[in-house]
Amino acid sequence: MSDTDLIKNCLRGSMESYRELMIKYKDYAMAVALNVLTNYEDAQDVCQEAFFKAFQNLAQFDLQKNFKNWFYALLFHKCLDHLRKQKRFAGMLGKFRKETSIENSLQPENEAFSHSTELQLLNRLNPKERISLYLWSQEGYSGPEIASVLGCSSKTAHVYLYKARTKLKALLREKK
Amino acid sequence: MGKCQRIKSLFKLIPFKSIQYSLIQTHLLKCDACLKDLADIDEAQTITVPKSRLEDVKDLWPQFLKDLEQQRWRKKVILRPVWRWALGSAAALVLTLSLIFVLTRSAEKRYLDDSAVKLTIDNINLYEEPAQAIIFQTQDASKTFVWVEKLSKGDMP
Is pLDDT above 60 for B1? Predict the structure, then answer.
């Protein structure tokens, strides 16, 4: 069943259709959130919130558009909210979290996910650069598609991507 | 690769995948820009975590249902003005009662502290012989007992 059909069924009251949507997109959502937040547990919480928010706003979704991009945009905003909240807890707690976030993210329940260096490097880019880089390299998104997720112009998305790629090169050079 | 208009137009013209593949291969041999982009993608892939690396992502459905239930309850109960008033009044009543309770307790304690008998015994004789006195006081200080007993021979001063 296509996304549009599933959404139509959801709007008619079928919870099972929404469950199908969640199953279909939970891994995608986790990957995006993890690459933006660089912390496994935070990513899980934010995904949960994003799915809930998406369900609440499903009626506002334009069926002509791509559900994945719409959901990614919502998820990304949730991630930004989460990062903002974290920033507010500055001082002791903030320092503690910063130190432990990378460690935590690299010791999840997930055994396959255990390489720390990736997220440490990713953590040195800003969230918009992180998501641009992820969408471009892992999901093959083009500039305009990234722009639709970030809610900015295509040119701005290209700038984020360009900055991310430049920083990445510098980081990899530094690492070597 | 997205930049390269030539390869994009070729894709549109020839819809067969095997032909597309060989065209891409031949194109890549010549196009430095595409090769550079591919190398950059490879590099970017080394620091981003792909979906395929995430095994056993937690099922979010049970928590989703819980959240939904909570929200429904909140909508049903808390958001209705009648219930809001009822809850507010109940909270105010509980607060007032606990305040009254605390105030009466502290007043009672103060009264007992003030009224408590302060008793000291310096010297006591029993049948014209020195004796020892033990003072007992109940925990709330409302009653005081004095126990006087004769000293045994060994205890004599």
Answer: no
**Which residue, A111, A157, A64, A145, is CA-closest to B55?**
A111
Partners of residue B55 in chain A, C-beta under 8 Å: 110-113
For every residue of A127-168, DSSP letters joined together read HHHHHHHHHHHHS---HHHHHHHHTS-HHHHHHHHHHHHHHH
B156 within domain boundaries:
no
B/e letters for B123-151, b = 16+ CB within 10 Å, e = fewer, are eeeeeeeeeeeeeeeeeeeeeeeeeeeee
Boundaries of domain holding B47: 5-53
Interchain CB contact of B152 with A (< 8 Å): no
Q: What is the value of pTM for the model shown?
A: 0.65
Torsions phi, psi of A151, nearest 5? 75, 40
**What was the pLDDT predicted at A111?**
46
**pLDDT (0 to 100) of residue A82:** 92
Residue A133 clears pLDDT 90, i.e. is over it: yes
Give the separation between CA B112 and CA B98, rounded to whole angstroms: 21
A124-176 classified as CATH 1.10.10.10: yes
Which residues from B are below 8 Å from A30, CB to CB?
Answer: 51, 54, 57
Q: Inter-chain contact A118–B47, Cβ cutoff 8 Å?
A: yes
pLDDT at B82 over 90: no
Which CATH class, in words, describes the domain spanning A1-114?
mainly alpha
